[in-house]
Every structure is written in C-alpha cells, then in structure tokens.
Design brief:
The chain is α/β, with parallel strands linked by helices. It has one domain: Rossmann fold (3-Layer(aba) Sandwich), CATH 3.40.50.150. Helices cover 29% and strands 19% of the residues.
Length: 257
C-alpha cells in the first residue's frame, strides 16, 4: 500500500515508502499484537497506582513516558493548571532528580512516578482517559530481531490507544529516521490514527536534556505526532487496512482516519 502525506505539517521527504519497510510491517503480519501471553506477563508485574483518583480530578491528562528529570513537564505544568501532567521513569537516578524538583515546586497538577509504564497503564488507566502521550527519544532497538520491542510494534501500543481519548495524540521523537517512519506507517495504516506532524525537530527546541545535547552535537532529529480518529483494532482482521482505497481531494490518505 502506497501512502502519501497532505497534512500541512508533514515533510513529504520524510514519509516512508513501502520498499523501505520490512515484510512484517509492510504486509501487516502483526497477529502477535493480540497474543494473550503479553497480558499474562504484565499481570505478574502489576503496578499499584494509589494516585488513580487524580485522573478524574482534571479535565485533561498528559503523560510522558520515560520523563527523565521531567524538564518538559516542569515547564508545561504552570502553563496549563487544569491539565494533570504525569511523568513515568524507571531509572532511579533520574526519577530521584525529577521527584525532588517536583516536590520543591509542589504543583498539584504534576505527578512523577517510578513505575513500569506497561502494567501501570494496562491495569490502572480507564478507557479514553489520556489526552496526550509523549515519548521523547526512546531506545530505537535498531536490530531487526529486536523490532517488536519498539514502542509502536509492541502489543502495548494497543493499550496506549485504548486509554487515549478520541482526538488525543501521541508524540514520538527520535534521532533515527527509520524509527519515526515505521511509526508513521504503523499508526497511519493499521491503527486508526491521522498523521499530523512529521518533521525535523527545530534547532532551538529544548524540551529534554537529551534533545538539547543531540542538537548541540549537530544531530538531525525527527518528530512525529499522530491523532486517534477511531477505536483501536480488536483483532487481526480489523487490523488490516482497506485495500485499493482511493482518496479524494483534501482527504487524509493515512489509514482509515
């Protein structure tokens, strides 16, 4: 399936072409996403979430996965006091740094957690709860044998979409072009999302410490934003895109959104 981009914030030169993708992704061989053994594994790692009640206290929820020292969330939280900002971080050193900063600020709409985000979201977040998920510079797992560990190819992606509100967004940044290209294809073709942004990260951007360091080193960085336009597929049949679909003028050709 050939895909193109017509959205105003999409750099056409960055759009993936089918020949750039591996056969599993190109032909939708993704039945593993619905394997129940993943849920069984996560249930053994079930995370407690005593702060769950706070999800209902705010009209909007913004989650950053792997927030590091929470630089981005600390900058955003005073700008939107009616949004609950949640940062998750597994590394203890970074979590402690973020937690100390959050405690000093004592903002009621800022919550930093040292939790495994997979069971945390899978077993504690209700459907259609989150307005935005951010994943800044996750491990790209570049080796082919590790491809299913990439966020957008892991079964957890269905939990992200389940808990995302209709019209909610997922933001993904990387210094690897293949990573955002594969993610754009996965979300746009198979997962009922509309592509809103695919572009180079601006050189003056300063959202995370990694981003600042990469830009100072002169690296080319990439950013993808997709918006949920429909329910996530419930089985492998729903996962398959419509074939030979003709797009009319002005219609978004990415997936079924």
């Amino acid at each position: 399936m050939e895909i193109t981009g017509s959205a105003t914030r999409v750099n056409g030169a960055l759009l993936p072409r089918p020949e750039q993708l591996d056969e599993e992704l190109r032909h939708g061989r993704l039945a593993y996403l619905f394997t129940r053994r993943y849920l069984e594994k996560w249930s053994r790692l079930r995370e407690t979430f005593p702060e769950k009640g706070r999800l209902a206290d705010f009209p909007a929820v913004h989650v950053e996965i792997g927030c590091g020292r929470a630089k981005n969330l600390i900058n955003l939280s005073p700008q939107q006091p009616h949004t609950l900002y949640i940062g998750t971080e597994r590394d203890n050193h970074r979590f402690q740094a973020a937690s100390r900063r959050a405690e000093r600020l004592a903002r009621p709409n800022l919550l930093i957690l040292r939790r495994d985000v997979v069971p945390l979201v899978a077993f504690n977040f209700p459907d259609s709860t989150v307005d935005e998920y951010d994943l800044f510079y996750p491990d790209p797992w570049p080796r082919y044998r590790h491809r299913r560990r990439r966020w957008y190819r892991h079964p957890f992606v269905l939990e992200l979409l389940r808990t995302l509100k209709q019209g909610g967004s997922i933001r993904l940044t990387s210094d690897r072009l293949f990573y955002v290209q594969e993610a754009a294809w996965m979300f746009g073709v198979y997962l009922n999302c509309r592509l809103e942004l695919l572009e180079h990260v601006q050189v003056h951007s300063n959202r995370t410490h990694f981003e600042s360091k990469y830009l100072q080193q002169g690296r080319r960085l990439y950013e993808l934003v997709v918006r949920k336009t429909g329910d996530p597929p419930a089985d492998v049949v729903e996962l398959q895109p419509a074939r030979n679909r003709v797009c009319t003028a002005g219609e978004n050709p990415w997936g079924r959104g």
